[in-house]
Design brief:
The structure holds 3 protein chains of 3 kinds. Chain B is mainly alpha-helical. Chain B contains 16 helices and no strands. In chain B, helix 2 runs antiparallel to helix 15, helix 4 crosses helix 15 and helix 5 crosses helix 9. The longest helix of chain C has 34 residues. Classes of the chains: A mainly alpha, B mainly alpha, C alpha+beta. At the A-B interface, helix 1, helix 4, helix 5, helix 8 and helix 9 of A face helix 1, helix 2, helix 5, helix 6 and helix 7 of B.
Chain lengths: 300, 298, 454
């Protein structure tokens, strides 16, 4: 047995080899290249020139649009992640049953996540939030008559994106479902025998047992919310309007990189993003010690 | 640990095992009503898309709020399937399937192995490599795209499926982290017990862990299938020859601001392109929730 | 214990194999690419090596363009026709939608892998030509390999930068006002003469009448098109000749134009911004096609799409302001360019030449990329045109006689300036800034962007 312990390093590297090799071959070089570009004026066509911290300085002191995009992005992340997770967990709990037709329900709730960011979504979102959209018709029934377009007004446009993100909660729901099914049913049975109510069972068994999955969803959804691009792109025709109110960070980065061909500046933006999201993820990991319950404490 | 599926079923609150009070009687109906209504809201847009795929071309915008077409324009499916000058959607679907199936197998298999390494084996430098892995998910793809493209161009992989498929065999960080979290919900006693029986790390992985994490593997497979199916940016960059285009990219060739567009054909093909990913989900979601994991360990 | 050992061996073998497999994969794959097998039929590399100047040696030419389904279809037909005439030439088409097209070209430029023939847009021309990505076509026009004998000089000028022809005009466009005669009649509005049109003031005077019937004057006027057009009418330029600053110093022009624009906007003659941002900009959503606005002010090649979507007879009128200082001009709707890195420039030029000058090819193209630049082709294909296409050809022919040469292509950074202008005008229309303040802000920021070209 002691022999295994000694060989753990080798075994560990053997198991993780696919990632490490792939990282070294496919990912590391492009990442380092982008880090280098962030200190240059690279424009995609000509050899980059070293400009030191100029890109970073411009970003922090001379670019109003940059700060606007930061604000928009934080609003988006702070609103969409909790809403989406809460919704996903609630629906997952509801659908974690064995009754007739449950598979169809699950599929119905997952379907919106399958149509992704296609043109169909952007047209359809106009159907809902446009000036003659469903929402306004519905408000009309309630006696509130309005013809503003929720998508087109600076104050509300970002909320239509948040709604879109919450509507596409299927992937988080799926992961929660898989997590719920991994909880040994014996635990619930034991609690049932003890006479614990549904609420108690949820807080004493489901939540702790699900906490590693909650952590996963929280971290991944936060990262992906910061990187959100497609919905803003298809809904605002790639412009981030009106009045930059849907100018998510990734959208602005894309504009800089490919529309204005300022790859150096875009790279600097990307690395600031990496640092920010990295710090947030690290904080989430640190706090997880206090609320995430692992069955396997020993070796992790 | 081996809990029969029946026990799982019985543990749900919808169980009718206990004597039903009157409140319990209407409860299932209320459940169906609420969940069903909400489901309608969720799928309304898909219904809209399907109905648009059957509307005569002019109606898609003029009758946008009407779910029922004035007549069923099946010709949209014919004109859409015809694709672009000889390259029909038969070609595009075939390409998509090749890319997606191979990628998914590679991504799930490699990610499971790596996840076990990170979740269960202590080794020097683990934290560092895990950090590297998380970092790759936090850097926007836009800025690594160009150097990556130059790299693939230098090794002569352009205009083939290789730049799209091969990297999938080197573990996908999202799946690694996902599967890791599932492995970590498995009680450690199991490993210990197996170790006592003389199982090696490999043995533990293949015989104990793998059967238990099937729900997460299926989840990863569903995601991978959908993501690869939906991905158009890599095919756009790396495939020059339209004969190699997958469905995701072909769908984007329909529309153009300058000319009159075949909206009907576009929606028809967009609808068809949902079929495989929906089928995969519908078939595999059972394995997530029916607790396959329990049958692996006897 | 024995069983466990075998499991262990098997497992480690599997892992080992997996590692070997993935390692080999990379090796095999690159070998395969090198030997040209495995599905990569005539990759970029092999086409480059197969370059030959003689006519009968096989040549592969990569041709790239953007567009929608109809353009892809007929362009591929033209390519087929060309390949039949030149059995030694293989054309590899690469096509995408407009936005995707540029995303695809950028890494190709960075990796020195640009297609041989590149369809080019005016807003990107300077980015590519100014940074040495495009070949100078002048030697080919001089040698006659690119035949421009029936192309008027001003028509060619739109592809010239510093006197060198980097881009071949693929078809001409002119600004126009599209109207629905039946709608005008029903509103009791008299349609002006086809060679006069309205002035902006005359047209704006119809605003209240239109509004009473629930119609708009127009949805909007694209800022990056119509503000420079207004400046032309005032004898000003949007960009200075050397591209390092704006072409005007006095904010008066900006203030005059946008004060008027804001007035129309505030009166509700134009589409409100929130509704405008819902539109995807396709012909099907055009307000004249939908019958909710009096006019649509566009490039003339949009007419086919819009009148097809409208399913009614529409008319083309001269765009207001056309006669002020001969502001009207012909603009290439798009160009064909040849990559500087191309190893098959002769073959690439020959294909462009075919596209521009061949009558049979143009009977298939039918002016979809703008009115043909060759006068011979124009005349030859007239009998094949639909009534709508004839209207466009007639209007562009009229415009050619009543216009002056277009401004030089926009400098590097113009894409950013265009975006800035749009944002600044939005701020004005949302009443966040005054026109005066917006004018000053725009000038300062735009000059700062353009100053990088020094």
């Amino acid at each position: 047995m002691t022999k295994f312990r000694e060989n753990n390093h080798l075994v560990g590297y053997l198991f993780t080899a696919p990632f490490i090799i792939g990282f070294l071959i496919f990912t590391m070089f492009p990442m380092l290249a982008s880090l280098y570009y962030s200190f240059t004026d690279y424009n995609l066509f000509e050899a980059p020139n070293w400009v030191g911290f100029d890109n970073y300085k411009t970003m922090f002191s001379g670019d109003d649009q940059y700060w606007k995009s930061v604000r928009v992005t934080f609003t988006y992340v702070l609103a969409s992640v909790p809403l989406r997770l809460a919704f996903a967990l609630a629906v997952a709990m509801l659908l974690n049953k064995a009754i007739g037709g449950i598979g169809l329900y699950r599929s119905a709730y997952y379907l919106p996540s399958l149509i992704g960011g296609s043109v169909a979504v952007s047209i359809m979102w106009t159907q809902v939030f446009g000036d003659k959209g469903l929402l306004n018709s519905f408000l009309g029934l309630l006696g509130i008559h309005t013809t503003t377009s929720w998508i087109g007004s600076p104050g509300t446009a970002i909320w239509t994106l948040i709604a879109l993100s919450v509507w596409q909660f299927g992937s988080s729901m799926l992961i929660f479902l898989a997590g719920l099914k991994s909880i040994p049913a014996s635990l619930h049975e034991a609690a049932n025998v003890d006479g614990a109510g549904a609420g108690r069972r949820f807080f004493k068994i489901t939540l702790p047992m699900l906490s590693p999955i909650i952590l996963f969803n929280l971290i991944m959804q936060t990262i992906s919310a910061f990187m959100t691009f497609t919905p803003a792109y298809v809904i605002s025709r790639g412009e981030g309007g009106p009045l930059d109110s849907t100018l998510l960070y990734s959208l602005y980065l894309y504009k800089r990189a490919f529309q204005f061909t300022q790859m150096g500046y875009a790279s600097a933006m990307a690395w600031v993003m990496l640092l920010t999201v990295g710090v947030i993820a690290l904080i989430l990991f640190q706090t997880s010690k206090y609320w995430v319950h692992y069955e396997s404490k020993g070796e992790s | 640990m081996a809990v029969p599926a029946k026990a799982l079923l019985a543990s749900g609150p919808a169980s009718t095992k206990r004597t039903a009070s009157s409140a319990k009687k209407w409860k299932p109906y209320a459940f169906h009503l609420v969940i069903g209504l909400l489901a309608l809201v969720m799928i309304y847009p898909i219904l809209w898309m399907i109905s648009s795929s059957l509307k005569p071309n002019g109606e898609i915008f003029s009758q946008a709020y009407n779910l029922i077409p004035s007549r069923l324009a099946w010709e949209n499916y014919r004109s859409g399937w015809a694709g672009f000058a000889g390259n029909t959607f038969t070609t595009f679907f075939k390409n998509s399937l090749i890319i997606v199936v191979i990628s998914t197998i590679g991504a799930v298999a490699s990610s499971a192995v790596v996840a076990y390494g990170f979740a269960r084996i202590p080794f020097a430098g683990k934290g560092f490599w895990f950090g590297c892995m998380m970092m790759t998910m936090m850097l926007p793809h836009d800025v690594t795209m160009i150097p990556q493209y130059v790299m693939f161009s230098k090794i002569g992989w352009l205009s083939s499926f290789k730049p799209i498929i091969v990297p999938q065999f080197f573990a996908i960080p999202f799946f690694v982290f996902l599967i890791m979290q599932f492995i970590r919900t498995i009680p450690h006693d199991l490993d210990e017990a197996a170790k006592m029986d003389g199982c090696s790390k490999y043995g533990i992985f293949f015989r104990i862990v793998l059967p238990l994490i099937v729900p997460s593997l299926v989840t990863a497979a569903i995601f991978s299938f959908y993501w690869r199916w939906d991905d158009f940016i890599n095919p756009l960059l790396y495939l020059n020859n339209p004969k190699l285009y997958p469905v995701s990219l072909a769908l984007k060739l329909f529309l153009d601001g300058d000319s009159i567009n075949n909206w009907g054909g576009m929606f028809a093909m967009a609808t068809l392109s949902l079929v495989p990913i929906f089928a995969i989900f519908f078939i595999f979601q059972r394995y997530i929730v029916e607790g396959i994991s329990t049958s692996g360990l006897k | 214990m024995k069983k466990i050992t075998t499991t262990l061996v098997a497992a480690s073998l599997m892992i080992g194999l997996a590692a070997c497999g993935s390692g080999n994969n990379g090796g095999n794959a690159s070998n395969a690419a090198a030997s040209g097998s495995a599905g990569s039929t005539g990759s970029a590399g092999s086409s480059a090596s197969a370059t030959a100047k003689t006519d009968d040696k096989p040549v592969t030419v990569r041709v790239a363009w953007w567009g929608g389904q109809s353009r892809h279809d007929y362009t591929l037909k033209v390519i087929d026709m060309y390949e039949k005439l030149h059995p030694n030439v293989t054309i590899e088409p690469e096509y995408a939608a407009f936005d995707d097209y540029w995303k695809k070209l950028a890494p190709q430029a960075a990796a020195n892998q640009l297609p041989d023939v590149i369809q080019m847009d005016i807003s990107y021309l300077n980015q590519y030509a100014g940074r040495n990505q495009l070949a100078d076509l002048t030697p080919y026009t001089e040698s006659g390999k690119l035949d421009v004998s029936s192309v008027a000089e001003p028509t060619l000028a739109g592809g010239k930068i510093d006197g060198k022809l980097y881009a071949m005009n693929a078809g001409s466009n002119a600004l126009t006002m599209m109207v629905d005669p039946a709608m005008l009649k029903s509103l009791g509005i008299e349609e002006p003469a086809a060679d006069k049109g309205w002035t902006w003031d005359e047209f704006a005077a119809l605003g209240d009448k239109a509004k009473a019937e629930g119609k708009l004057l127009f949805s909007d006027l694209r800022h990056d098109v119509f503000f420079p057009f207004y400046l032309r009418g005032q004898g000003q330029l949007m960009y200075a000749a050397d591209g390092t600053k704006l072409g005007y110093d006095d904010d008066k022009f900006f203030i005059d134009y946008y004060t008027k624009y804001r007035e129309w906007y505030n009166k509700g003659y134009t589409m409100s911004l929130d509704k405008l941002s819902q539109s995807k900009g396709t012909p099907e959503e055009d307000l004249v096609a939908l019958g909710t606005a009096l006019s649509s002010n566009q490039w003339s090649n949009q007419f086919i799409g819009i009148s097809t979507a409208a399913k009614r007879e529409l008319d083309l009128l001269p765009v207001p302001g056309w006669d002020s200082n001969k502001a009207l001009f012909l603009k290439p709707s798009m160009y064909f360019t040849v990559a500087n890195s191309s190893k098959v420039k002769d073959a690439a030029i020959d294909f462009i030449n075919y596209f521009i000058n061949d009558v049979e090819a143009n009977k298939v193209i039918l002016g979809e990329r703008g009115v043909p630049v060759s006068s011979k082709v124009q005349e030859a294909i007239r009998p094949n045109l639909t009534p709508e296409q004839t209207k466009v050809f007639d209007y562009v022919a009229w415009a050619e006689k009543n216009s002056s040469e277009m401004n030089p292509p926009n400098p590097v950074g113009a894409v950013e300036v265009d975006a800035l202008l749009k944002a600044e005008v939005e701020k004005i229309l949302y009443k966040q800034v005054t026109v005066e303040k917006g004018a000053a802000e725009f000038r300062e920021k735009a000059n700062a962007i353009l100053a990088k070209n020094k």
